[in-house]
């Protein structure tokens, strides 16, 4: 797949909301090759939100 085809495919995907999310995930995978890093960030993110909602503490 050429670079132009790749960009066109991403542009077509981004026309729908689900496509936007998929494209964001693809970009994230290019930045972080390891899915473990993404999962770790998501877990930490939701954990901090859960703590804020439970205790009402601002960090």
Can you describe what's shown?
By secondary structure, the chain is mostly helical. The protein has one domain (3-55). It is 80% helix and 0% strand. The radius of gyration is 16 Å and the shape is elongated. The model has no long low-confidence stretch (mean pLDDT 69).
Percent of residues in β-strands: under 5%
Rg is: 16 Å
Helix content: over 70%
Total strand segments: 0
Number of domains: 1
Low-confidence stretches: none
Order of SSEs: HHH
Main sheet, how many strands, which sense, barrel? Answer: none
Total of DSSP H or I helical runs spanning 4+ residues: 3
Taking the alpha carbons of the first and last residues, their distance comes to 45 Å
Write out key terms for the chains shown:
80% helix, elongated, mainly alpha
Secondary structure blueprint with pairings:
Elements: H1 3-13, H2 17-31, H3 35-55
In short:
With 59 residues, this protein is an all-alpha fold.
């Amino acid at each position: 797949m050429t670079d132009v085809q790749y960009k066109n495919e991403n542009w077509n995907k981004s026309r729908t909301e689900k496509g936007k999310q998929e494209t964001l995930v693809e970009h994230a995978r290019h930045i972080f090759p390891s899915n473990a890093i993404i999962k770790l960030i998501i877990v930490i993110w939701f954990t901090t939100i859960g703590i804020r909602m439970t205790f009402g503490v601002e960090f």
